[in-house]
Amino acid sequence: MTQRLFAIISFCFICIHIHAQERKKIVRNYNEHDNGRNFIAKKFTWKEVFYVIGNDEIRDGEYALLSPTGKTSISGYYSLGKKDSVWKYFNNKGILICQQWYRNGEKVKLWEFYDAQENLSWSYDFDSSFAPLKQPENTMHGFYYSYQDDQGNWTKEKPDKLPILLSTKFKWFVFLLSNLTYPDDAVEKNEQGKTTVSIMVDEQGQAINYEVETSSGYPSLDEESLRLVKLYNPEFTPAENNGKRVKFKFVQDVNFKLEYQ
């Protein structure tokens, strides 16, 4: 009992010590930490604004991703490195794309997704596992219908309870507009094509592994596709089979097409 009490007191002391540390504001070009390359666009500068605490630079406090025009693209909040409270996503005109709720990194409350006219398209309530509005068909594209059984083998069929991709084609399109960069060498060589990226998703609905499933035939396009899908970091409701949550696979296509005027 004494040891348990000591462990609880020690944990509380650590949490208090972390929160007592002074927050440091960070403003930087988006993805400048990724080998110094600005993947968003060479002519524009997107900026991240967030706060960190501790020597390990744990994110804690408000977060914002600002577009080249200064408009907020993403707003949210971190608590000791985990997403917390409401996170909102906007297009380049400031229209709300979706809002998502977290509590200490866990998905909670009502998630809402909007169309290009800022009308509510559909929603999902994590507190009741209920979708108040009919989920659009286009949020179900890309599933392998392949899940992992109790022995760790992959079964190529639908699980009893299908997962839900917590996104829309509109959100994916807006993300590509802001983040896709056509590789210079591919432009020079007129390389075009489609890459399919396979995503393994765990029992909590979090993406845990990414692989190129079908190559475009061009390494730089495949590399950019893999980077994009990882950056997008799609989220899902868990898949279930025989009353248990299971891992499953999902695929995302990324198309590259050059258009000359």
Structure, explained:
The chain is of the alpha+beta class. The protein has 2 domains: 1-133, no CATH class; 135-261, Fusion Protein Consisting Of Minor Coat Protein, Glycine Rich Linker, Tola, And A His Tag, Chain: A, Domain 2 (2-Layer Sandwich), CATH 3.30.1150. It has 4 helices and 15 strands. The protein has helices at 2-20, 169-179, 184-188, 219-232; strands at residues 24-29, 47-53, 58-66, 72-79, 82-90, 96-103, 106-114, 120-125, 143-148, 154-155, 193-201, 207-214, 239-241, 244-246, 248-256. The strands form 3 sheets. The protein has an 8-stranded antiparallel beta sheet with strand order 1-2-3-4-5-6-7-8, with no helix packed on it. Residues 32-43 have low confidence and may be disordered.
Neighbour order of strands in the largest sheet: 1-2-3-4-5-6-7-8
Q: Distance between termini? A: 75 Å
Major pleated sheet: 8 strands, antiparallel
**Quaternary structure type:** single chain
How would you classify the helix and strand content by structural class?
alpha+beta
Order of helices and strands: HEEEEEEEEEEHHEEHEEE
| pLDDT averaged over residues | 81
Cα-atom Rg, whole angstroms?
21 Å
Number of domains: 2
What's the overall geometry? Answer: globular
Share of β-strand residues: 35-45%
**Count of alpha/pi helices:** 4
- Helical content stands at 10-25%
Would you count the extended β strands for me? 15
Low-confidence stretches: 32-43
